[in-house]
Amino acid sequence: MLRRKKNIANFNRNDRRRPEKRIDPINERIRYPEVRVIGPEGQQLGVMSSRAANSLAMSYEMDLYCVAPNANPPVCKILDYGRYRFEQQKQERSQRKKSKGHEMKQVQLTPQIGQHDLETKAKKAREFIEEGDKVQVCVVFRGRQLAHKEVGEEVSKKFVEILSDIAQVEKPPYWEGKWYNTIVGPKKK
Questions:
Q1: DSSP string, 7-74
Q2: What confidence tier does 28 reach under pLDDT thresholds 50, 70, 90?
Q3: Which of 39, 61, 131, 138 could cysteine-pair with 43, CB 3.0–4.6 Å?
Q4: Which residues of 106-125 are buried (b: 16+ CB within 10 A; e: fewer)?
Q5: Residue 108 forms beta bridges with which residues?
Q6: How confident is the model at residue 15 (pLDDT cuts 50, 70, 90)?
Q7: Whether residue 23 has pLDDT greater than 90
Q8: Please, which residues have CB within 8 angstroms of residue 30's CB and are 6 or more apart in sequence?
C-alpha cells in the first residue's frame, strides 16, 4: 500500500479556521539570554539572565513582562499583568469612544410636508449638526409627485434656509432616482 506525504506547509497556510493568537511575552515565555529589568516602582534593577529576572518577579509575587523586545538587551518590567491588560483594554475602549468619526445622519421629507412637520424635522437636524454630524436632507417622491419636482426642490430650499444660521451646504442638491438630496454640515469656524 502506497502512503502519501502530507504537505504540512500548504496545510498550515490554507488552514483558515484558527486565527493566529498573539501571545504576550510574560514569565517563562521570555527566552532571552539576558534582559534589562525594571522593578515594580520603575527603578532600574540592571541586566540579568531571564531566569534570574523571572525568579525575582516571583519573589515580588508579580509577573515579568517584556515591554521592549527589540531593544538591546530586551527590556522587561515586573508588574501585575492582569491589571496591566485591564488598563490597556480600558484605554483602548476610551480611545475608540473618543475617535467616533462624524456620521452622516439622514432626514427624509416629502413634497407635501406641512410647515410644523418641517420645523420639527429641522429641529432634529439642528441637534445632529450641533453634535458635529453631517445631515443628508432627502425629499422622497412617490408616484405622480415626480410630475412636480419644483415643489420638492422648494421644500429642500426651505429646510436648508431654516438651518442656515448653524449649517452650510456641503454638497449642492442632486437627483438620485426618486430622491432629491442635499448634504449640509456644520459651519466652519
A1: -HHHHHHH--SSPPPP---BGGG---SEEEEE-TTS-EEEEEEHHHHHHHHHHTTSEEEEEETTSSSP
A2: confident
A3: 39
A4: ebebbbebeeeeeeebbeeb
A5: 138
A6: low
A7: no
A8: 50, 53, 54, 64, 66, 74, 76
pLDDT digits (tens, 9 = 90+) for 136-168: 999 999 989 888 889 989 999 999 999 999 999
d(CA 62, CA 37): 13
What single DSSP character describes residue 103? P
Rounded Cα distance between 37 and 35, Å, is 6
Amino acid in position 106: Q
The mean pLDDT value of the chain amounts to 85
Which residues are within 8 A (CB) of 10 and not within 5 positions of it... i.e. 6 or more apart?
A: none
Identify the three-state secondary structure at position 166.
coil
The mean-pLDDT minimum among 12-16, 81-85, 87-91 falls in 12-16
Contact 139, 169 (CB under 8 A): no
Three cell numbers written together for 123? 429641529
Give 121's strand partners.
none
